[in-house]
Amino acid sequence: MEQILNELDWRIRIFESLSYPTRILNANREVIAANQVFYDRFQITKEDLLGRTCHDDSLPYASISHFPCSSDKCPHLAAHESCKSQSIEVQTWDKNGNTIWEERVFSPILDDKGKVKYIVESIRDITRIKHLEKRYSEMRELIDKVVQSSVSAIMAADREGNIILMNEAAEKLFGYSVLDANEINIENFYPSGVAREIMRKLRDEEIGGKGKLPITNVDIVKQDGEKIPVEMTAAIIYEGENEAATAAIFNDLREKQAVAKKLENAEVQLLQSEKLASIGRLAAGVAHEINNPLTSILMYGNMMYEELDADHPLIQHLRYILEDAERCTGIVKNLLAYSRQASPSRAVFYLNNMVNESLGLIRDQKLFMNVQVVKNFDDHQILVNADKNQLCQVVINLLINAFDAMEGSGTLTLTTYRNDSHRAFIEVSDTGCGISDEDASKIFEPFFTTKELGKGTGLGLSMAYGIMQENDGGISIKSTGPEGTTIVLELPEEPVTDEFTFVSIG
Ligand SMILES: Nc1ncnc2c1ncn2[C@@H]1O[C@H](COP(=O)(O)OP(=O)(O)OP(=O)(O)O)[C@@H](O)[C@H]1O
Ligand SMILES: [Mg+2]
Q1: How do residues 322-331 score in pLDDT, each as one tens digit?
Q2: Which of 132, 222, 297, 401 is the most buried (most CB within 10 A)?
Q3: Is residue 137 part of a domain?
Q4: Is 471 near ligand 1, meaning CB less than 6 Å away?
Q5: What is the pTM of this model?
């Protein structure tokens, strides 16, 4: 008997020592006992509580009785029926009206036959956990939004390299949908071997610290196989000491590289213009100085030529002197044109007509012998306002350069077109030898020529450069290589007026 009493005493002590408010309910859901913590927590007396049912809403403190459980969801009944513990989360309020979240666990106490005799209900305050959960889920939502709205592509993969996260920018950059994520592996995103190299660097403590990859430039491979230069950073996500996942951020470098290239080109152009301008000034000075002695050489030479008999032994020498002096006059004229000493006299004309005229002006018809000339003119006549003679000079030089490059045989294609920004273009393409990278940067410089002595002065393109600038246009190499060269001229297009209407030549 004493032993039984002892045991009972122990059980009561255990019940009393539970730190959670706990009460015991019988099969009718009546409270038959509660521990002191329960009375303290709900500030209710034994007399007020015992014998009441758990759903008795006349209890002074609503939250003890007022379960949001309808009878079909009643955890008490469920624990009865299943003989297993049931739990629910309940939102209640304390005396001051503050929200409290509780977890109520209903554990069945079985009799000797294994039938449920009582239900122990213990109540745990989970308000703090609930708050943390809420904050955590808000935080997660925020992080999700930050990740999704980032302009950088963000991706994470598990230890096997399976994609577990991909934001919209990553979908766009890589061309995969997040829905394909479980079919793709991180290795698909890089050229062969690169993913492994990145992992090696990530694990190398010397590079960016353990588990971190500092900004690195690599190529990634899009779904359609296109390679895209990107800068990336990556990190290993650890769980304790173990690698759990990897995350990486990518930025597309194409735009940045294009801007850098444009800037570089602009700088080169500027340098070229400055260089040409100073050479131009020098050339103009020299041309002026040479012009006077040259005029007297020609004048006195011609006077001598007229006085000498046709069979005079020195007449041939004099002819050579006069021919070369004549050539020098041409050079001086070109130099003056290059240095923009001769101001352009502009007029409005049809571009295609001017190209045709230039072709007709080439005197040396031998050049055409084995060359096929293809005219690829815009269907509509394009109007420009420029110095026609100067432009003819430019086109003739391009044509002669093209013929020279083809050394007698090939195809010369003349193309004209306009774009939506009201710019007009002439392209002169040949199937000649092409221009080497080294020469390409020099061809617009005065006196640069690869032609044999006496054949070219190297003034053609530098003059063309000056003339195109003077006429608010430009000249550039569109393409060059062993298959030939295309030089493109660009001019502002003149708006169509009543006087000049678009003429279809199609
Ligand atoms: N279509 C082309 N194909 C290959 N090389 C070219 C072409 N056009 C120009 N070049 C190169 O550029 C150089 C310079 O051309 P540019 O017209 O200024 O001078 P040139 O033709 O040598 O002499 P000039 O025009 O004064 O008679 C040429 O000597 C040649 O090396
Ligand atoms: Mg030339």
Answers
A1: 988 988 887 7
A2: 401
A3: no
A4: no
A5: 0.48
